Amino acid sequence: MTTVTDELRSKLRDLLGAEYLIEGGDSLESLSKDFYWYSPVLKRQLDDKRAELVARPGNLETLRALVAACHDAGVPVVPRGAGTGNYGQCVPLYGGVVVDLSRLDRILSLDDGVARVEAGARLGTIEAAARAIGWELRCLPSTWVKSTIGGFFCGGSGGIGSITWGGINAPGNVKSVTMLTCEASPRLIRLEEGESLKALHTYGTTGLMVEIEMRLAPKVDYDQLIFSTADWDRLLDWTDAAARRGDWRKRLVTQFQWPIPSFFKPLKKYLRDREHATFLLLDRAQADEVVRFAEAAGLACVYRQPLSDPPKPPFITDYTWNHTTLWAMTADPAFTYLQSGFGRNFREQFAELHRRFPGEILFHLEWTAGNAKMMRGNAVALNPDAVVVGGIPLVHFKSEARLNEILRACDELGVFIANPHTFYLEEGGRHPNIADKRAFKSEVDPRGLLNPGKMKTYEHNPFAAEVAAT
Length: 470
What we know:
By secondary structure, the chain is of the alpha+beta class. The chain has three domains: 6-102, Uridine Diphospho-n-acetylenolpyruvylglucosamine Reductase, domain 2 (2-Layer Sandwich), CATH 3.30.43; 107-218, Uridine Diphospho-n-acetylenolpyruvylglucosamine Reductase, domain 3, CATH 3.30.465; 222-417, FAD-linked oxidase, cap domain/gating helix (Vanillyl-alcohol Oxidase, Chain A, domain 3, 3-Layer(aba) Sandwich). Helices cover 28% and strands 23% of the residues. It is built from 14 helices and 23 strands. Strand 19 and strand 20 form a beta hairpin. Helix 1 (6-16) runs antiparallel to helix 4. The longest helix has 14 residues, at 60-73.
């Protein structure tokens, strides 16, 4: 559908300059998309969706004027970061203007353990700057080198560091977010502490995130470790015990079922044929102890390399979280994935899923901290009883019907699924505060122009009837 008039197009061209208003070509196509194609369901639904314009404002004043112009014209406004998300969150359903915020990328301050940054700042840049003065990010996705913090906060949930600090919505991680409303005169609204949850993981439906304050963690010098064995249960018992060791300072605990390690071609010379593998990112001062602990359990340490400071490749994190799915799809395009949270009976859940779907599910597990933590002096330490076994299992895609059968089985077995095969934010994760998010959207987006169609339970979508009529 067409929503952008010639008048609006001319106005935005004058406002931004032709260099920063993309009106066609390959750039318009690529900046209208993210990694939604990880899901064959989303690929079918979103392949033909694209913006009419992509705007790339370089400062808050230009952004404010841009949003005001789109509001007055009644045009959809869809914010975007680096486009490394997987749920089609920055893919416009009804055309309009995609607003690329990656030029609003300043690090405003790194004081007293808090990063204050613009939403377009890349996580890799923030991490390097923080480590240079003795800090590090608490939580970052496997795409951290490229992804923006605003994109992560609007579309992500957890990642590297979550084994100690939980996800971005864990208490204390986010100090504040500042949102720009979509109104005739766009306002800035600052949400502090718990109030920020109204804006996290909302795909830009509740305002354009322009500034973020995130608490940092004290910097740790890490070793990157890989352990290997042909015995899945032995490795699972050891990895789970390692994840729950509150005295070990960890940033990553990941386990892969064979043949997933065979997909990691750059690591081929280290990984053993037909053996499962566990990846750890752990305090270098504790690495000798961990290796001894693993060898005593019958595991082999097949890879050990320090993480350089400032960080530079190779990174074992490039094979974890949703990067694992990308490596698998590169090896075999028939793979897709789930995002899951298992119960205390996770061993029984694994066994039953394998029994029901033999050869269709490969387990990729990620351990994370729950919200319950222990205090040790001035530091936060992991509560081993609150550790959650989750992960991003690979699935051999046969059909949407079969995929839905697997989802139903997970529900029957008590496996929580944050469904990555939907672009509706409510269906893609746990939103106990969805009523607050809807109310906030009503306040900041009175015409329903912000990423319309993505918040399924929001009643006012001015474009839905027009699409249904075509």
